[in-house]
Amino acid sequence: MATLLSQPQRRPPLLRQAIKIRRRRVRDLQDPLAPKAQEIEPPSHHLSPEERALLYEEALYTVLHRLGQPEPNHVREASELLRYLQEAFHMEPEEHRQMLQQVQKLEKPIFCLKATVKQAKGILGKDVSGFSDPYCLLGIEQGVGPQGGSPGSRHRQKAVVRHTIPEEQTHRTQVITQTLNPVWEETFILEFEDINTSSFHLDMWDMDAVESVRQKLGELTDLHGLRRIFKEARKDKGQDDFLGNVVLRLQVSGVRKQGFGWGSGEGLWVHTKGSLGPASCRPSAPNRVRLMLPVGVGPPAHLARQDLRCREDQWYRLEPCTETYPDRGQCHLQLQLIHKRRAPKASRSQPSYTVHLHLLQQLVSHEVTRHQAGSTSWDGSLSPQAATILFLHATQKDLSDFHQSMAQWLAYSRLYQSLEFPSSCLLHPITSIEYQWIQGRLKGEQLEELATSFSNLLAYGLSLIRKFRSVFPLSVSDSPARLQSLLRVLVQMCKMKAFGELCPDSPPLPHLVTEMLRTGTVEWFHLKQQHHQPMVQGMLEAGKALLSLVQDIIGDLHQCRHTWSKIFQNTLKIDLFSMAFLELQWLVAKRVQDHTAAVVGSPVSPEMGESLFQLYVSLKELCQLGPGPAERDGVLALDGFHRWFQPAIPSWLQKTYSVALARVQRAVQMDELVPLGELTKHSTSAVDLSTCFAQISHTARQLDWPDPEEAFMITVKFVEDTCRLALVYCSLIKARARELSVGQKDQGQAANMLCVVVNDMEQLRLVIGKLPTQLAWEALEQRVGAVLEQGQLQNTLHAQLQGALAGLGHEIRTGVRTLAEQLEAGIARHIQKLVGIKESVLPEDAILPLMKFLEVKLCYMNTNLVQENFSSLLTLLWTHTLAVLMEVAASQRSCPLASSRLKIALQNLEICFYAEGCGLPPAALHTTTFQALQRDLELQAASSRELIQKYFCSRIQQQAETASEELGAVTVKASYRASEQKLRVELLSASSLLPLDSNGSSDPFVQLTLEPRHEFPELAPRETQKHKKDLHPLFDETFEFLVPAEPCQKDGACLLLTVLDHDTLGADDLEGEAFLPLRSVPGLTGAEEPGEVPQTRLPLTYPALNGDPILQLLESRKGDREAQVFVRLRRQRAKQASHHAPRPGR
What we know:
This protein has 1146 residues and is an alpha+beta fold. It is built from 36 helices and 19 strands.
C-alpha cells in the first residue's frame, strides 16, 4: 500500500563538537536593597519507573528489528547496542533479560521501503521530437531466492514490474512530458515481508499516445526522427517505449565473503544493484553478473557491502535491455527502510517525536553522567552506540528532519538547565528549526511545548547572566568561551521566526540582558559588602573593610573591561563596563562619604590616616577607570571625592616625613661605611636613602591632589621635607664616620671611610637632582599657572632645591679637600727632594719616587671614590702641585740641572693626571699657571748657549712682526754659494734714520756680525764706511763670509746689522738693529747656485727696554763668562736705545 508524501526527507543533523564546560552552582544572592530576581526551576528530565520501562522496551525493539547496512561510524553488533542500553537505563541483568524476552515475543513490525523518486537525467529521447514523456513503475518483488535462480533461468525482460509484481503492489509516477531530465519528487511506501528475499524494481517508460502521421510529421526535426516514425509504424498502437530500469536487492546474502568463489579462479554469479554497467551482464541474465576472479583475489570493493543502508540518497544508472543504447541516463532515488505498526506500547500510545524526545533525553543524560563519573566534562559528542540507536529509531519511526530537530532542541534545552554540557549543542537544532520552520506542521500542544522551551531557556540563560561573575569565573580558563556560547545561543534563539511567532510579547534580548546585568551587579556588590563585613566593630576595621570592597570593585571592573565587556559588546552591543562602573561608583560613593564624615570629625590617628590614604588612592584608581569628563553624561557620584579626605592631608604629610626620617636614621646606624662592590662605591645607607626618597616621590604621585593651589603647597612640603632629610643625612653619616674612626690606628681605613662618606653624599646629590622629574614640576607649573603669581614656583621650589644642592656641594668639597690635604704634603715633600738629588742621577730616575707615590695614592682614590669626586680631588691636587713646582722653580732659577728635573717632572705629572683620558681633561690641565711654569722651566733647564740661541730666535720673530720704519730701515742683498761656502752680503743703503747728533743729523755706519757668536767663532765683525751727516746713506758695499752651510741653518742663526751713529769724542750711538735669518738666504738650502738675488728691506728695531727674561736668566748665571759677556753687550745696546726715543709723528 502506497502513500504519497510531499515533504522531501533529509539526513538527520549531526551534533556539533563543543568546548569543555563546567558550571558552578551558586547560592541565592541576598540583597536587602534590591528586589530579588526570580529564580528559574528547570524542568525535570527524569522519567518515572513506568515511563522508563516503556522507553526501554521501545529501544530494545528498535535494536532487535534493525534493517539495512549500518552507517560507516555506527555500531554493527546488536549485542553491543543492547549492553549500552542496559547501562544507559540502569537495568539490572535479570531485569534486562526479562525485558529482552518480552520484546522478542512482540509482533514484528511491517517492514517498508520508503522510496522517493526525485528526478532523472540524460534519458533517451524516444519521440519524434527527440524528447520523451517519461514515467516510472516501481514495486517490491518478493520471494526471490538468495541466488536469484540460475544464470540462464530468466531472460532479459522489458516489463519486469508489470510482469512480475502484482498490479495492486505496483506504483506509478506522473508522466512528465517532453523532457530528457524529468523531475518527479514523489514518495511511495512499499511493504515487504522478508528483506532477504525482496528486491526493489523501478522501470522507466516513455508514454506514447495515439497520434496521426500528420501530427508526427509536424514534430519532425531531423532524419533520426523520420527513422523513429517508421519504427513506430511497426509497433502496436499505444505501446510505451522502455527507457531503462533499476533493480536493487534490499539485502544480498548470496555473495559469499569467504570460501568457494573468492580467489578460486571460478566464476561467480551475483545480482546487480544498478551500479554495474551492461558490459558485465550475460545476454541470458539481465540482472546478474559473472565475476571472473583469479586465484587469491578477493571480491571487488563495491560488492563487499551490498545491503542497503537505512537511508540511501544517490544516483542510480538506468540499465538497458539490449546493447543498442547502453548509456540510458541516471535516476536519483531516496530510499529509507521504515517500520509500520510497531508493537511496543510507547509507539502505540505516544507520538513518534515524543518517544524519540524521551529516548534522546535518556541517552544524553547517560552520556553526561558517564563523563562526570570519569572526572571529565561531556563535549557534546554522542558515543557511537547512542548515535546508532537514535539514528535507527528516527529512521524506523520515519521522523522528519524537522521533528528530529524539534526533539533535539527540547531535549537539549531541558538538559542544559540541569546538567553540565556545552551550550553550543543548542545551535544546531536552532539552525535546523529555523531553516525548516512552518508553523502549520506542528500541533497545538507541540507549539505550546516549543514556546515553553523558549521561555524556560531564556529565563534560565538570563539567570546565569545575572550571576555571570560566579557562574563563569575567570579562574576557569574556558569561562569566557562558555559565556559567549550561551549568548550566541540566546541571540540565535531570539532571532528565530518560531520564537517571534510563539513568544511575540518577549522584550528585546539586549534590554533583558542589560536589566539582568544591572541587577546582578548590584547583587554582587551587596554580596561583597557582606563578605567584607568586619567581625569587630570600629572605625579602623570599617575602613579596612571598605578598602577591601573598593579593591574588589576595581578588580571586577578590570575584568569587565578586558574580558566580559568585549563579549557582551560583540554579541549584543551592550557596554557592560560603563553600566557596571556607573552602578558601582554610586554605591561606593555613598559608603565612602559616610565613612570619611565619621572619621575626620575627630583627630586622625596614624593608623587611621594610613587607612584613609589607601582608601583615597584606591578611589583615585577607581575614578581613572571611568570615562573622562568629555565622554560621560552628567556628573558622577565620585566627582570631587578628594574633598572628603582634605582634613587628613596634614597627618599624611607628617607620617610620610616621620617614616622617612626613621628609615634614614636606621640606615645610617646600620651602615659600616664599606662600599657595596667594586662598581658600586657608596654604602648601604645611600641605597636606603635613595629608596626612601623614591617612596616619598611615589607617595606624592599617588596623592596627586586635584586642586592646583593645594597641590602646589603639598609639593612645597614634600620638597622641603626631602631637602631637610638630605642635610640630616649628611650630619648623620659624618657622625657615623667619626664614631667608627675612634680608636682606629690604621689611617688607610679612616681614608676609606672618608671616601665612602664623600661618595654617599655624591649619590645623594644625584638623587636630589631628580626631584623635578619625580614630582612632575612641569605639569604642576602648567596647572598652577592661573592661580600663582609669575615666578612664584621658580622662587619657591627651585630655591629650595638649589639650597639643598649647594649645601651638599659644600659638604662634598669639604670631604674632598680633606682627602686632598692628606696627599698634598707628600707631593710637596717629594718635589723638594727632587732638586736635592746628586747630579750623577739622571732626571728620569730622580722623579721615580714622586711618580710612585702618586701612582699608589691616586689608584687608591680612584678605587674608593666615584668619578665625580675623584675628578674634584685631581683638580685640587693638580692646582697644589703646580703651586709647589712654581715655588721650587723660582728658587732654582740659576741651576739648569734642577730646572731640568723639574721640567721632566712637570711633563710626567701632566701625563699622570691626564691618565689616558680617564683623569683631568686637557682644558683643566693646561691652566695659565701650567703654561707659565712650562715656559719658565723650559728656559731654566736650557744651557747658556741654548738661551742665547733662543734670544736670537725671539729677535728674529720680533723682526718678522715689525712693519713700522719709525727707527729707519736698511736694504741688503744676501746670497750663499755652496760651492765656495761663502755668504755674500751687499749692504745697499739705509733710510729714515734717527738724527742723533746735535746738528740734526747723524754719521751712520753699519756693523755686520754673524750670531750667535759661539756658532761663528772664527768670523770677526765687519763695518761699512762712515757717512757724514746723512740720514739716508747709500753704502753699496759688499762683504763675504767664509762659513759652512750647517751652522747657518740652525735656529737663531742670523746676520745682525747694527746701525750706529759715529761720535768722535764719545761712544757711538745706536740707531737700531736688524736681524736677517740665515736659513732664508737664497742658495743656502738648495744645491743650485742663486741667480738674481732680491733686495731685502729690514726695519730697524730696539732691544726691550724693560729687560728680556732670557737676559735676566743669563745674568743670574754668574759663573758663566760667556753668558755674562753676552748679557753685558745686550745691556749696552739696550742702554743706548733708551737714550733715544723716536720723535712724535715718525
